[in-house]
Design brief:
Layout lengths: L2 H12 L5 H12 L4 H8 L3 H22 L1 H24 L4 H21 L1
Helix pairs in contact: 1-2, 1-4, 2-4, 3-4, 5-6
Length: 119
Amino acid sequence: MDKMLRQALLYDFYGELLTEHQKSIYEDFVLNDYSLSEIGENRKISRQGVYDIIKRCDKLLNGYEEKLHLIQKFLMAKEQVAKIHELASEILKAEGAPDKATEYLRQIENISNGILEEM
């Protein structure tokens, strides 16, 4: 996963745990794609100060993910739901082949059970 996508996911899942000041700077950098200089000029702080806040936020957000694994669980569930969707499409195509449809249904059942057990 690329760094910007990971930062956006971290912010989506754990951003509310940052202070308002940290959130606004992190949003400007990650979501609004402002440069360190632009953020520093707008907030009347040094570029280095902005960099330090972003690094501190990254460390905090990554620490939350290491403890809670919400992003990991979300991505796994997303992958499993995509597989369920794929199998359901195959069932619709296999209407004339009941053995194939039954196998796809078993796979869907196993995947959905895994999702339910994780939650």
